[in-house]
């Protein structure tokens, strides 16, 4: 299928750092303030100790300064925690909304290239991981400031004690680098295994009835959990990396402290520094070796980076392009396909489709299972862009129509419609505009849904989750939604397949009542749909095998074969007969 030129702006996750600048600045100031207070404390403490040991009146001002610095450090840390949590929550919400919007705006088949379970994991857990990066990074600034300031403090007190500390610095830096790299690798592998389990679980939940009927529950259980071993392995790997880094720093850091104190002690003995200096030097040394605390922040940043990498393909999905063009003239929806072809993974799904459906008429799309009917339906309403050729509505190429207008003018109904909206009424009203209560009831009547809705505990106000719906009832709600949003083109992709013949007859009459005002494209397996349509498009292996009126096409035995019943005689059903065949085709599902 056609690859659209990239229209995305800056990478979605990189954009995060530019969102909520005030909150991030506040966080930075709080972290920096906390770090500066922590750095000033040893100097104040050393000075106060010197005053204390030198005798004389108690150094109240020094003691008060120390208390104030402790309070300031605690206050800044608390404020940083509150601002950080709030900002991460906001960034997560923003990233999730943006990613979901990209997925929904893209050509459905392109977005659906990521399996459902994986997509869910990315939109939930991965967005939270990725969105924590700016706050973690802002916090890490203080994590760097503290050791750097502590080394500067040590240098000011005594060069030799500082040199003792710096002796071990290269080892510490090497430790941190290895830790970050290994955590990032282990984190990415862990997330991949998680996504695979999520994907298989979604598949299993989708096919729960099939699994139950085939009694393959135990096998399915094993299949879903099969990546658990890999997941555990990557989890163990992460903990091993953490454990090793903690163990190494537990050995290295006290040794460094010991070295600094030993050199400080010798320098105190020679009179180069005072007691207060030694107290301050020991505090600075412990702040400097606190660089090990950065490991947590670096680990979190590595996880965020791995998560951000999984979001990039979604955030760079191109929306359906819009060329901009003339307004669509007021007309009943003439649909034209000129040389339309669709290719997926090198396989032609539709080839050279040329067709004009006069405005206000109906077209039945028939053909064997897999002949390309749904692909045709997707192209006809621009759920999918063709790789070759053009689709026009009332003379205007669909990719030149303003997207909101296009969605207002084209109504879809599917075999297994999604039912968004808390209540039945909201579900029918859901669409490019919210249909009025009167329109909802009229649409429900047209789709023959009013009868069963009236029997629900709260009628139209019944929550969809509490409404036990059969397949046919779900289809009727999907149809009602299409009726409630009348445009100039209505596309029913197998949307009558679960209706009984009487209901189907009434729905067809409601569709016929739109003749002259709206073009109707009806993908169908039943003979009655073809017989009733103004025109039939007969597809075979993605090509037009024939077009014309049903009774004209009926003379072709191959055409009759499409509707062959499984009656004992094996003879085709007469045109218009209600005893139609139900092909082995599975129900068509509304885009996720
Ligand atoms: N996203 C896709 N990727 C690859 N192949 C696809 C995709 N969508 C459809 N196809 C293939 O295109 C062919 C036509 O599919 P389509 O769903 O249009 O058939 P159909 O005529 O509607 O069948 P049915 O009557 O069973 O619903 C099938 O062979 C199908 O496997």
From TrEMBL:
<dbReference type="GO" id="GO:0005524">
    <property type="term" value="F:ATP binding"/>
</dbReference>
<feature type="compositionally biased region" description="Low complexity">
    <location>
        <begin position="567"/>
        <end position="576"/>
    </location>
</feature>
<protein>
    <submittedName>
        <fullName>ATP-binding cassette domain-containing protein</fullName>
    </submittedName>
</protein>
<dbReference type="InterPro" id="IPR003593">
    <property type="entry name" value="AAA+_ATPase"/>
</dbReference>
<feature type="domain" description="ABC transporter">
    <location>
        <begin position="335"/>
        <end position="566"/>
    </location>
</feature>
<feature type="domain" description="ABC transmembrane type-1">
    <location>
        <begin position="27"/>
        <end position="303"/>
    </location>
</feature>
<keyword id="KW-0067">ATP-binding</keyword>
<keyword id="KW-0812">Transmembrane</keyword>
<dbReference type="Pfam" id="PF00664">
    <property type="entry name" value="ABC_membrane"/>
</dbReference>
<dbReference type="GO" id="GO:0016887">
    <property type="term" value="F:ATP hydrolysis activity"/>
</dbReference>
<dbReference type="InterPro" id="IPR003439">
    <property type="entry name" value="ABC_transporter-like_ATP-bd"/>
</dbReference>
<feature type="transmembrane region" description="Helical">
    <location>
        <begin position="281"/>
        <end position="302"/>
    </location>
</feature>
<dbReference type="InterPro" id="IPR017871">
    <property type="entry name" value="ABC_transporter-like_CS"/>
</dbReference>
<feature type="region of interest" description="Disordered">
    <location>
        <begin position="565"/>
        <end position="592"/>
    </location>
</feature>
<feature type="transmembrane region" description="Helical">
    <location>
        <begin position="131"/>
        <end position="153"/>
    </location>
</feature>
<feature type="transmembrane region" description="Helical">
    <location>
        <begin position="251"/>
        <end position="275"/>
    </location>
</feature>
<dbReference type="InterPro" id="IPR036640">
    <property type="entry name" value="ABC1_TM_sf"/>
</dbReference>
<keyword id="KW-0472">Membrane</keyword>
<keyword id="KW-1133">Transmembrane helix</keyword>
<keyword id="KW-0547">Nucleotide-binding</keyword>
<dbReference type="Pfam" id="PF00005">
    <property type="entry name" value="ABC_tran"/>
</dbReference>
<dbReference type="InterPro" id="IPR011527">
    <property type="entry name" value="ABC1_TM_dom"/>
</dbReference>
<feature type="transmembrane region" description="Helical">
    <location>
        <begin position="159"/>
        <end position="176"/>
    </location>
</feature>
<dbReference type="GO" id="GO:0015421">
    <property type="term" value="F:ABC-type oligopeptide transporter activity"/>
</dbReference>
<dbReference type="InterPro" id="IPR039421">
    <property type="entry name" value="Type_1_exporter"/>
</dbReference>
<dbReference type="InterPro" id="IPR027417">
    <property type="entry name" value="P-loop_NTPase"/>
</dbReference>
<feature type="transmembrane region" description="Helical">
    <location>
        <begin position="62"/>
        <end position="83"/>
    </location>
</feature>
<dbReference type="GO" id="GO:0005886">
    <property type="term" value="C:plasma membrane"/>
</dbReference>
């Amino acid at each position: 299928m056609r690859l659209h030129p990239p229209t995305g702006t800056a990478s979605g996750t990189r954009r995060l750092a530019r969102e909520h600048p005030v909150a991030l600045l506040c966080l930075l100031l709080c972290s920096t303030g906390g770090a500066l207070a922590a750095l000033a404390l040893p100097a104040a403490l050393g000075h106060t100790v010197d005053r204390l040991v030198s005798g004389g009146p108690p150094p109240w001002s020094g003691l008060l300064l120390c208390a104030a610095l402790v309070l300031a450090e605690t206050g800044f840390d608390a404020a940083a925690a509150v601002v950080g949590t709030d900002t991460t929550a906001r960034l997560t919400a923003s990233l999730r909304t943006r990613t979901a919007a990209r997925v929904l705006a893209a050509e459905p088949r392109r977005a659906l290239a990521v399996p459902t379970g994986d997509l869910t994991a990315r939109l939930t857990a991965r967005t939270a991981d990725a969105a924590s990066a700016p706050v973690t990074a802002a916090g890490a600034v203080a994590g760097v400031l503290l050791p750097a300031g502590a080394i500067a403090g040590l240098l000011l007190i005594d060069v030799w004690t500082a040199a003792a500390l710096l002796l071990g610095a290269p080892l510490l830096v090497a430790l941190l680098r290895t830790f970050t790299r290994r955590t990032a690798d282990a984190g990415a592998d862990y997330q991949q295994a998680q996504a695979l389990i999520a994907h298989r679980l979604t598949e299993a939940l989708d096919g729960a009835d099939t699994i139950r009927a085939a009694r393959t529950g135990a096998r399915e259980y094993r299949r879903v959990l099969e990546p658990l071993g890999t997941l555990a392995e990557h989890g163990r790997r992460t903990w091993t990396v953490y454990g090793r880094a903690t163990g190494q720093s537990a050995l290295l850091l006290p040794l460094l402290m010991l070295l600094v104190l030993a050199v400080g002690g010798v320098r105190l003995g020679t009179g180069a520094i005072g007691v207060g200096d030694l107290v301050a030097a020991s505090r600075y040394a412990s702040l400097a070796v606190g660089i090990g605390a950065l490991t947590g922040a670096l680990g979190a940043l590595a996880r965020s980076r791995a998560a951000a990498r999984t979001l990039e393909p979604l955030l760079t999905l191109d929306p359906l392009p819009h060329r901009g063009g003339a307004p669509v003239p007021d007309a009943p929806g003439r649909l034209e396909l000129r040389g339309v072809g669709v290719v997926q993974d090198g396989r032609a799904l539709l080839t050279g489709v040329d067709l004009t459906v006069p405005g206000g008429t109906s077209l039945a799309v028939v053909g064997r299972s897999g002949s390309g009917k749904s692909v045709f339906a997707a192209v006809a309403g621009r759920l999918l862009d063709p790789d070759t050729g053009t689709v026009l509505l009332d003379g205007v190429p669909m990719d030149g129509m303003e997207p909101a207008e296009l969605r207002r003018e084209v109504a879809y109904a599917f075999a297994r419609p999604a039912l968004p909206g808390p209540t039945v009424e909201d579900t029918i009203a859901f669409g490019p505009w919210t249909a009025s209560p009167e329109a909802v009831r009229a649409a429900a009547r047209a789709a023959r849904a009013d009868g069963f809705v009236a029997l629900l505990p709260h009628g139209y106000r019944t929550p969809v989750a509490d409404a036990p719906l059969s397949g046919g009832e779900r289809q009727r709600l999907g149809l009602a939604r299409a009726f409630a949003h009348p445009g100039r083109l209505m596309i029913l992709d197998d949307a009558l397949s679960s209706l009984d013949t009487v209901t189907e007859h009434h729905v067809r009459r409601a569709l016929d009542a739109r003749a002259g005002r709206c073009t109707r494209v009806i993908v169908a397996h039943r003979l009655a749909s073809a017989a009733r349509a103004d025109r039939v498009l007969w597809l075979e292996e993605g090509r037009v095998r024939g077009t014309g009126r049903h009774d004209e096409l009926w003379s072709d035995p191959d055409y009759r074969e499409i509707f062959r019943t499984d009656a004992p005689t094996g003879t085709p059903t007469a045109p218009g007969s209600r005893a139609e065949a139900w092909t082995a085709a599975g129900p068509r599902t509304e885009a996720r």
